[in-house]
Design goal:
Layout: H1 2-18, E1 20-25, E2 28-34, H2 38-41, E3 46-49, E4 52-56, E5 61-69, E6 77-91, E7 98-105, E8 119-125, E9 134-138, H3 140-144, E10 150-157, E11 169-184, H4 190-212
Antiparallel strand pairs: 1-11, 2-3, 2-5, 4-5, 4-11, 5-10, 6-9, 6-11, 7-8, 7-10
Helix pairs in contact: 1-4
Length: 223
């Protein structure tokens, strides 16, 4: 029992020092297609659930969306948080050289209103990305200060408007967007450690007593 308590104590120190990882998978992925110049190509605004690509053309553009239920993170002490999305493939001459990432706070579902919506988080170098690569961005500051239950992440190409139809764009892997969080362990109250130390001491004394009770003393012989 003493050995078991010691192992638990030792492991708890390791976990408290390094924290632990929590992965939140997206609850929906999609694309908002903006038919900017409807009169030129005859294509209006559209939603694509499960198809997530982003590009920028003169007549229309698309933006990739991923939505997350982050309620499980609200009770955690977050050390770091990384947004990741697997790339499926690129089309056209290649991937966009730069990708803008936005956060749509308290947004849980795909809608046309999400086009150009959100708080700017940063630009990601996406030049040369292809199938099997990962587009990622540190969103620690965002999650440490956010208390809502849902969040959407929007990807938009920073390439200038392309007149030709084969502009650089990326197709993101459906269902493979995630937020990876490293959470700190809530400190264990001192009373718990004292209780465990007391248990170790109690079992130690009990073991010593058990050993002494088994000692056989020699019986003196009287002539």
């Amino acid at each position: 029992m003493k050995r078991v308590l010691f192992i638990i104590f030792f492991l708890s120190i390791i976990v408290a020092k390094n924290g632990y990882a929590v992965t939140i998978a997206s609850i929906q992925n999609g694309e908002v297609f903006d038919g900017r110049d409807y009169s030129r190509d005859g294509v209006g605004d559209q939603l694509y659930n499960g198809i997530s690509s982003f590009f920028n053309l003169d007549t229309h553009s698309g933006q990739a969306m991923a939505y997350f239920d982050i309620a499980p993170l609200l009770s955690l002490n977050i050390n770091s948080a990384i947004f990741e999305w697997d790339v499926d493939h690129y089309q056209g001459p290649g991937s966009p050289s730069s990708t803008a990432v936005y956060a749509m706070l308290n947004d849980s579902a795909l809608s046309l209103d999400d086009f150009n919506k959100g708080v700017f988080l940063g630009d990601v170098n996406s030049f040369g990305l292809t199938g099997g690569d990962i587009l990622s961005l540190d969103i620690t500051d965002l999650l440490q200060g956010f208390t809502g239950e849902y969040i959407g992440i929007r990807l938009a190409s920073n390439e200038p408007n392309q007149i030709v139809s084969d502009a650089p764009f990326l197709n993101m892997s459906n269902g493979n967007a995630r937020i990876i969080v490293n959470a700190a362990v809530v400190p264990v109250p001192t009373t718990i450690w004292l209780f465990c130390s007391g248990l170790i001491g109690l079992f130690g004394c009990r073991r010593i007593k058990s050993k002494t009770s088994k000692i056989e003393y020699p019986v003196a012989c009287i002539n």
